[in-house]
Amino acid sequence: MKLKEEKHLVTVICTCYNQGDYVAQALNSVLEQTHRPIELFIVDNGSTDHSRLEINLWLDANVEKIPTKSFYHEKPMNYCKAFNQAFAKSKGCFLVDLAADDFLDSRHLELALAHLQQSNAKVYFSNALEHFPNGKVQSFYPTNKEGKAKVPIVEGDVFGTVIKRYAISSPTLVMEANAFRSVGAYDENLSYEDFDILVRMAAKYSFVYGDYLTVNKRIIKDSLSQQQYKSRNSQLLPSTLIVCEKIAGMVKCRSDKEALRLRLLHEIKHATVSANFDIALKMLKLYKTLYPINLWFLLYYSWSKIKWDLSAGYEKWRQRSFD
Questions:
Q1: 3-class SS at 169?
Q2: Over the chain, what is the mean pLDDT?
Q3: Where does the chain have alpha helices with state H?
Q4: pLDDT band at 321 (very low <50, low <70, confident <90, very high)
Q5: Which residues of 24-46 are buried (b: 16+ CB within 10 A; e: fewer)?
Q6: Which domains are present in the chain?
Q7: Are 9 and 93 in contact (CB under 8 A)?
Q8: Cα dist from 101 to 17, 73, 110, 130, 307, whole Å
Q9: 246: pLDDT strictly greater than 60
Q10: Where exactly are the transmembrane stretches of this chain (predicted)?
Q11: Which of 317, 275, 279, 288 lies closest to 191, judged by CA?
């Protein structure tokens, strides 16, 4: 059964910070969606490049073609807070968080809503194409010649899966707005949003997968997502610790507890090798309260205590895709 027309409204919130080279393509990809109705919110989060000029030029040319609201911040603010402020003014029944350096295939929203209507899920996700600065393009999930995923994709209850690893490409998400609202929207105490919102949505709601390459994500060296394991001074790892602490209070079954153990070891490893020793020790402290000490724990604990800095080699390895 189809939803009533007024319940079809999708809110797309496009947040831009110094992405002037890309923002017009992101906005055009919303305009070109086969699905209607859409409301487009554009947030310039204190850009210092030509982003605002590009946004204004785009608005001048397209403001009559799609309902649009724009928000300009003179100084950068917390991403989660900037997004939530825009979301509070939205009317859509479905929600998309679109980074200004990503862009959508024209059928992304149409396919997403079809899958959501045919299931009891509140969150849709798909495959994505990742574009690297060196010209390399690869899919998030490996695909066959027909462009279909050739690995099993977990859907439905994905809670343990999103705890354990980066199993869902967050730019592909299309969420029911009320579901997003019911979990409290983005946590404004965090520096980044995707790990946390995936966990909180998955703890409460079912996810449905569409096997399509309908989102294009740019992998950019200086983007926020690439700062997760920045050597010696990650601004994002403290937020990762907060999310892991949240998960520790949420997990109940043995498999989910094991998923958190593996996630913690993964984050501890990268925090240690990237010389973020203080946060590594805090993660190790959390691990110790939850699980028996093992050889990996002792290795990373000793490494972090003596502050053996191998981050130069790690950084070179991490940046290999940008060469």
A1: coil
A2: 94
A3: 23-31, 51-62, 79-87, 108-117, 159-164, 177-182, 194-204, 237-248, 254-273, 277-290, 295-306, 311-318
A4: low
A5: bbbbebbeebebeebbbbbbbbb
A6: 9-223 (3.90.550.10), 228-322 (no CATH)
A7: yes
A8: 9, 18, 21, 11, 36
A9: yes
A10: none
A11: 279
In SS3 terms, 253-276 reads as CHHHHHHHHHHHHHHHHHHHHCCC
> Which amino acid, 15?
T
pLDDT mean over 280-293: 98
Phi/psi class of residue 65: alpha, beta or left (left: φ > 0; alpha: ψ in -120 to 50)?
alpha
What gap in Å lies between CA 32 and CA 66, rounded to an integer? 10
Mean pLDDT of the 31-59 span? 98
Q: Give the model's confidence band at 4: pLDDT under 50 very low, under 70 low, under 90 confident, else very high.
A: very low
State the amino acid at position 198 in one-letter form.
L
Instruction: Read off the pLDDT of residues 197-231 as tens digits, 9 standing for 90 and up.
Output: 999 999 999 999 999 999 999 998 766 665 677 88
Give the strand pairing for 38-45 and 68-73. parallel
Question: Residue 114 and residue 126: Cα distance in Å, rounded?
Answer: 13
| DSSP 8-state class, residue 201 | H
DSSP label at 47?
-
What average pLDDT does range 294-315 have in this prediction? 92
User: How many angstroms separate the CA atoms of 179 and 98, rounded?
Assistant: 18
What would the mean pLDDT of 141-152 be, rounded to a whole number? 97
Which two tokens mark 113?
């809503």
Q: Cα separation of 264 and 167, whole Å?
A: 15
Q: How far apart are CA 309 and CA 312, in angstroms?
A: 8
β-bridge mates for residue 149, sequence order: 143
pLDDT in the model for residue 225? 61
